[in-house]
Design goal:
The protein is of the alpha+beta class and about 290 residues long. Helix 2 runs antiparallel to helix 4 and helix 3 runs antiparallel to helix 4.
């Protein structure tokens, strides 16, 4: 290779590197636009009963708003409620415990007096009688422990029955909107069978793909602006900007496209955003 050719090759390589650095510098400045994103629900759940039974109540309809913990459906629970009433009465009954406590006090008092008498005048009460009184005192203490244990068991049985009763109710795990009602009052349901579907519409996920180099500029928590793109129409909502923040940058590169999946949580206070909508989002960088 001649000296002239070598110099040209070096200059060419230098130009290529300079151009690449220039492109990188240009692309690493300012916000990043993701031209194609799709909206999806972040929180969506299908609620079912923990037991098999007959639906006694359906308190919601499709489109109803529910708060966390709201009752949405309930199975017939009369039998379990009766069992709970019995368990509560058994828990209230502390007669055995009070009797055992008094019996233990009396037995201990008798034994203590006998011991004091013999301490003053030895042999007044026979050794056999003292042993019987000591045994009676210890037995009374054991009976007191048993009565206390029975009361604790009654409390656990009450709690168990209360938990069984709660299993007949279907409640909302978080605030949202009823999307679908699959069962009606009076219908039979099996354990785990879908009854109600709810979704949180207060925020949606905007998901798209960015180039590997662009993904290195992004940070979780970065502000995002979303604009909708509704095919075949020109609507005022397409000129509106929705705010959000980057919530996930996938730590994996697609081996074919060399792109990285990224999504942002978009605030939907107005309720205009819907699952499946498309648009573009601009992500702040730097």
């Amino acid at each position: 290779m001649s000296r002239k050719t070598l110099i040209c090759a070096v200059l060419l390589a230098t130009c290529v590197v300079s151009m690449k650095n220039a492109v990188w510098a240009q692309s690493s400045v300012g916000p990043l636009t993701v031209p194609e994103v799709r909206l999806s629900l972040v929180e969506r759940a299908t609620l079912s009963a923990e037991r098999t039974g007959i639906l006694d109540q359906m308190t919601v309809r499709e489109g109803d708003a529910v708060a966390a913990g709201d009752l949405v459906a309930k199975l017939r629970d009369q039998v379990v409620r009766a069992q709970l009433a019995v368990a509560e009465k058994q828990l209230e009954n502390d007669v055995d415990l009070r009797f055992a406590r008094k019996a233990a006090e009396l037995a201990n008092l008798e034994f203590s007096k006998s011991v004091k008498v013999n301490a003053g005048t030895s042999g007044t009460i026979s050794e056999m009688e003292l042993r019987k009184q000591r045994l009676a005192s210890e037995k009374a203490l054991l009976q007191l422990e048993q009565a206390q244990l029975q009361l604790e068991i009654a409390k656990l049985q009450r709690d168990e029955t209360y938990a069984m009763l709660n299993a007949y109710a279907v409640t909302a795990p978080w605030a949202g909107v009823v999307m679908r009602v699959s069962k009606r009052r009076g219908e039979a349901v099996r354990e785990g069978e879908p009854i109600v579907e709810i979704a949180d519409l207060s925020r949606l996920r905007a998901e798209g793909y960015v180039n590997l180099t662009d993904s290195l500029r992004l940070q979780v928590g970065a502000p995002v602006q979303l604009r909708l793109n509704i095919p075949g129409a020109e609507l005022p909502i397409e000129n509106r900007t929705f705010e959000g923040r980057v919530s996930f940058i996938e730590p994996k590169v697609d081996p074919v496209t060399q792109k990285v999946r990224v999504w942002a949580d978009i605030v939907n206070d107005s309720g205009l955003l819907k699952d499946g909508m498309q648009g573009a989002m601009v992500i702040a960088t730097g």
